[in-house]
Amino acid sequence: MQHPVVAKKPRAKHPPFAAMVCEALVVLGDGGHGLAAIKKAVGAKHQLPAGWERHVTMAVKVMADKHLLVHTPGHAGLFRMSKALAAKHVAAPSKAKAVPKAKMVKAKMVKAKSPAMKAKAAGKPKMAAKPKMAAKPKAGKAKAARKA
Questions:
Q1: pTM over the 0.70 mark
Q2: At residue 142, what are phi and psi to the nearest 5 degrees?
């Protein structure tokens, strides 16, 4: 007796939900973040199938049970990554992002020093100082004159 051959489901085109939650927490930064903020960050970055919100909720729940996510002290609904998990996910992106920022700064410096920019700055006339208006008399003296 042979069992019928079942076709395998195609593999999802997105990373596992636990990995997406970790990415979202890295993007959102330090401190605790609520489930709604995590879902918003995950949904903004990935194309996901219908009903993905419940999968994110379950991933957060499972990760909290495994102590990969920690509740922030004093805020029951906010989560942050545990120190062990943060070391894995935060260390790699910070090195990769450091190089492009340095290149951007150099590019901005070069643009600011270009001769065309200097010519534009030199060609603009400076604004003349506006004359100050004469001080108005105080309203207290006018009220006293009306009463008399």
A1: no
A2: -70, -40
